[in-house]
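Worked example

This section walks through a single chain of length 91. The input is the sequence exactly as stored; nothing has been trimmed or padded.
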Amino acid sequence: MKEASAGTLESGDILVRIAPAEKPGLDVHLESSVAYQFGEQIKQVITETLNGLGINDAVVDATDKGALDCTIRARVTAAAVRATGKDVWAD
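Given that input, the structure is written out below as tokens.
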């Protein structure tokens, strides 16, 4: 795994950066103006998406600008594909 990112800082989007972890597990850092209300939900979507892709050890930095869950999943998936080189859409 290498460092990779996906998304933008535009309104309604999320910028997701994934990097290799130095210790086991997912370490998710979230910056969001709605973190008080939706922070746990956003972190859960990030974690579930990565686990579904078989990524269990990574450092994730996410800067949310009001993204919906579907956008969060798409950005996390794109960053994971870029970080691992594994195309989840090919089969």
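What to look for: Strands lie at 4-6, 14-19, 26-32, 58-64.
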